[in-house]
Amino acid sequence: MKHSHIYSFLHLPHFKKFRSAANISLDDATSCYSKDTRPALQTPHSNTRMQPLIWKLATSRHYKFLKDIVTLDVSWEEKMPVAIWRGQLTGSRDFYDKRLGDMENCNNMPRCRVVYELDNSTLVDAKLTTTRNRLPNELNNVSLVVQKTPIKQLLRYKAIIMLEGNDVASGLKWALLSQSVVLMPVPKHTSWAMEELLVPYVHYVPLKDDLSDVEQQMQWVLDNEDTAWKISQRSTLWMEDLCYHPDAVKDDTLVKEELLRRYAKHFRIIEDETEEATGSTTEIKKKKTM
Asked: Where is the Glycosyl transferase CAP10 domain (predicted)?
């Protein structure tokens, strides 16, 4: 069920590391804690599709660099006045068409287009680390691909661009924790880090989905450095509270216990020898013990 969040026919409650982001506020999220039922989530993928229950999965990929930020990061004043992005040509399956030419495909894929168009930018350093064999490494004498950049080097930039690929941006957690400010489109997916509750111009600087305003938003960061620095501080506090607060482990445990309690409410055990599914409730029947 790798992409089960987009299938309308899946009616079995299930756990995943992410789901579609919902159009809810922090007040909406906290008000549902004492309720066993609530309206269907309003998400970019519509409210008619079964959304998975979020569980803290793939932690080695999404959280493993958090511990390095304290030792590798530098102060805001030491960072270069440039926004940096490094990433693969993922999340492009809806835009890539092998029948089209390389240039047309690049223009259709925001990740490639921003790399190509901002090749000479003094505000943005954007490069792919691989085209995943969809495009050549160079187009019209513009180099699209560079080797992977270590996090230590990424942290030397005032702004770090984070883009969702096939789901949540895997590097977003450490970028939020850092002293750099995050530039990204409004999240369309959410995970244990509650990306859907992050607020533009409070926890990050927003970008258009087509990335056409990256330079403009980076210029805003430089023109409003005090505000941008405060945004970076609030995002750092978000991650510190989530992962390093004295109650963080206890809170994680309580949330997981409540998730399991609600999950269990979708099922009931009755005495019989058959199995059947009725509506959204799966009835598991077991043999009587003689």
From this structure: 24-270
